[in-house]
Specification:
Helix content is 24%, strand content 26%. With 318 residues, it is of the alpha/beta class. The chain has two domains: 9-207, Formyl transferase, N-terminal domain (Rossmann fold, 3-Layer(aba) Sandwich), CATH 3.40.50; 212-305, Formyl transferase, C-terminal domain (Methionyl-tRNA Fmet Formyltransferase, Chain A, domain 2, Roll), CATH 3.10.25. Strands 5-2-1-6-7-9-10 form a seven-stranded mixed sheet. Strands 12-13-16-15-14 form a five-stranded antiparallel sheet. The longest helix has 24 residues, at 167-190. The protein starts with 8 loop residues before the first strand and ends in a 13-residue tail after the last helix. The model has no long low-confidence stretch (mean pLDDT 95).
């Protein structure tokens, strides 16, 4: 006889992506007996130490919060055992969980991952998908195993990516989609065992963590590829280039027009609202830019205050 009763949950998560899942679980019939999140760190331009989004939401909800500096420390393991969790839920916690933690909840642990596995395992699945020009992504609920994002899949949902959407747009929507899918999966697990589907290892790809260097624009690439880079690196670390204005951050763009005889990186149009740059294939319109240390501006504002004319070049080095 299957007993369908609420499950005691321990939640592992840190950034904003995990908050909708935490909220959905708070609204569900399953009690959250504890939240594990990463230690407080300096954040933002002022480098002030503040609570990460999951910690702030957990404290507001009156939940017990654990912030181990090391996941294998005895005090944390004892605190985790005291929770007597039936199931662990992971949503962008940010660290690999050791076997002892995976085995602590009675039913193991499940993870909300922002890609259609096995594609884009790793730290930056949404950003890497947008940068690659993917037209579809999704979320996968999977069992957590020691190998990175390689556990059996329990549920998934697809979502198209529009050609103008940024990583921020896509990630926000996937967070909502994943939250609903996770609660439905926990309900199924409460009713009995849910068989998982093994991932196809030969189809796996890895989404490396983002660095500032990822944003350097190679103008020999196509306008579409550079546009995808601009979208994929928003809101951080952003695409950038160098020229007679110094380091220029490209916040918004659009592929326009046909190929030109001008060399890649050359300014072709610089008037009014139009700032068009030659690429390896096609022209790229810069729609919103930012000189390092200044505020974001439109092309019209940029051209009103700085000299930039056809024939000027943007390059990959200062």
């Amino acid at each position: 006889m299957v007993i369908d009763r609420p499950l005691r949950l321990v939640f592992f998560g840190t950034p904003a992506f995990a908050v909708p899942t935490l909220d959905a679980l708070l609204a569900s019939r399953h009690p959250i007996v504890g939240v594990v999140t990463q230690p407080d760190r300096p954040r933002g331009r002022g480098r002030q130490t503040t609570d990460a989004p999951v910690k702030a939401r957990a404290l507001a909800a009156g939940l017990r919060v654990l912030q181990p500096a090391a996941l294998k420390e005895a005090a944390f393991m004892a605190g985790l055992a005291e929770l007597r969790a039936d199931l662990g839920v992971v949503a962008a916690y940010g660290k690999i969980l050791p076997e002892a933690i995976l085995a602590a909840p009675r039913l193991g642990m499940v993870n909300v991952h922002a890609s259609l596995l096995p594609k884009y395992r790793g730290a930056a699945p949404v950003h890497r998908a947008v940068i690659a020009g993917e037209r579809e992504t999704g979320v996968t609920i999977m069992r957590v195993v020691q190998a990175l994002d390689a556990g059996p899949m329990l549920a998934w949902a697809r979502r198209p990516i529009d050609a103008e959407e940024t990583s921020l747009d896509v990630e926000r929507d996937l967070a909502r989609l994943g939250a609903a899918l996770l609660v439905a999966t926990v309900d199924r697990l409460a009713g009995g065992d849910v068989p998982g589907i093994a991932q196809e290892e030969t189809a796996a790809t890895y989404a490396h963590r983002l660095t500032k260097e990822d944003g350097l624009i190679d103008w020999s690439r196509s306008a579409v590829a550079i546009h995808d880079l601009v979208r994929g690196l928003h809101p951080w670390p952003h695409a950038f280039t160098y020229g007679n204005l110094g380091r220029l951050i490209v916040l918004r763009s659009a592929p326009v027009g046909d190929q030109t005889t001008a060399g890649a990186g050359t300014v072709v149009v610089a008037r009014g609202d139009d700032l068009h740059i030659a690429t390896g294939s096609g022209l790229l319109a810069l729609r919103m830019v930012q000189i390092e240390g200044k505020r974001p501006v439109s092309p019209r504002e940029l051209l009103a205050g700085h000299r930039l004319a056809p024939g000027d070049r943007f390059t990959a080095a200062p």
